[in-house]
Design goal:
This protein is of the alpha+beta class and 64 residues long. The protein is 33% helix and 14% strand. It has one domain (8-63). Bound molecules: flavin-adenine dinucleotide.
Length: 64
């Protein structure tokens, strides 16, 4: 599953699914698949994009 930088889940065509967010191990961010994963990066990535997703979900009208 792919997301944009604010954790918004994208369709296979790359469009945003409004109101659906993902972060952490269930989301593909820096490493788009298992082949790109580098051991030890997940906690940083999960907290960084998790924070961005939370901020966007809490105030979408200010950050959209
Ligand atoms: C042995 C091991 C070592 C690792 N070492 C590192 C490391 O050194 N550095 C690093 O960056 N990453 C490491 N990782 C990877 C990292 O720990 C995970 O990628 C990260 O914890 C994923 O975080 P998450 O919040 O996405 O998911 P999780 O931490 O899996 O959290 C998901 C949560 O959702 C809950 N849940 C599941 N289903 C439901 C449900 N239906 N309803 C409500 N709650 C639900 C679960 O109980 C859990 O608390 C390691 C992983 C393992 C297994």
């Amino acid at each position: 599953m792919a997301c944009d930088v604010d954790g918004r889940v994208l369709t296979e065509e790359g469009t945003v699914i409004d109101g659906l967010y993902a972060a952490g191990a269930c989301a593909a961010n820096i490493a788009q698949d298992g082949a790109g994963y580098s051991s030890g990066t997940q906690l940083g990535e999960g907290s960084y994009f998790g924070r961005r997703a939370g901020r966007h979900a809490a105030a979408p009208r200010f950050l959209a």
